[in-house]
Task: structure prediction
Amino acid sequence: MTLGWGIIGIGGHASRFMAPALSRAAGTELVAVASRSLERAQDFAARHKAKRAYDSLEKMLEDPALDVLYVATPNNLHAEQTIMAAKAGKHVYCEKPMALTVAECERMIKACNDNKVKLGIDFQNRFHPAHVEARRLIQSGEAGEVNVVKAQYAHGRSRNAPRGSGWRNDPEMAGAGALVGTGVHPIDLLRFVLGSEIQEVRALTDEKPPVQPLDSMAYVILSFTKGTTGVVISGMLVPRSDDDLVIYGSKMKITGKGTVGMPLRGELIIEGDAVSLRETFPAEDPIPGLYIRAIEAFNKCILENTAPPSSGYDGLEMVKIVDAILESSRTGRAVKIMR
Result:
């Protein structure tokens, strides 16, 4: 069975990653896109071979061929648009952060549950084969006791370089800066590979309201429920960043060298007393590769009526974690995650 997808939020991310992935994912068809500008929607549809273009989300949600809505609009619009889609009986695959507040996340989850549609969040790093294998090695016990993990995902620019004027630089629309743009990826990845929740954070960011209302860098220490301590560095001031995942197990060290981020890339390196392995990626197109896997996994959960591999619950947890990180940085104290 082929599922029809639609896109709201036809910016650079959708154009570079999701639309090409939708055109190549099995059992998937890009049936519609929407923008406030019909001309812009028509141009995007022509470039990515979408069947129809609309000038409003309301009109697109009336399309009977639309099964799944991909939400890639500014962060402050995610909740309203997800709830609209759920009420129209459409499944939702939402960009991170899921929303700006815990209350909005809870409303989104309730709307999707009430209308019996799936809600997935785009944490594509979970689908990198190096990360899937790292999780397997930890969950099976082959890695041994894991006390320390670290992950990094960053970009490089001068501290004094202009941030630009897009919505990502507007606190009312974005909610936070690099923390929600890049930081959520390594944090969610550690949750995924460990299969453990974060119970407390200690953090430092360079956010300095009102002079600098949004963070450019975040340095975070995470305490997990199973006793592991994690370290995350993320932001926009790290030229030639080592976007690595490193897991220190008692039986082996697992490294995802350059695997954290958006393209399917890097190496999986396993070093232990009884094992040595090195595997290089990509084995496929690195740009849409992770997204193809994520789309196909979400389609499968719809068709088999199972839980999404990265769900609204994961999105809600990440908003709680982001709030705790910002509070820790502002107060200089450790902050527990409330559940």
